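Researcher: Good morning. I'm working through a list of sequences from a screen, and I'd like to move beyond sequence-only analysis. For each chain I'm collecting a predicted structure so we can compare shapes side by side. This is the next one on the list. No need for commentary yet; just the structure.
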Amino acid sequence: MEMLRANVDAEGLAARIHAMNEEASTETALALRISRGTFSFGFALLALKALGVSQLDITHVTTRDQNEQ
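Model: Good morning. Structure tokens for this chain:
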């Protein structure tokens, strides 16, 4: 979702991660990881940082107990 908001494709994300001096995968590898959902929480945070996200708000996320009430 954040990639869409920032109008960044996998190639742009790879370039941004590389610019942060982090090991970046190729555009193809990034696209596969994202489309399959096969990435770690750490990678998700790195990608968000590369996209310029500085805060996360999870107050809208409910727990299973809250959904059952």
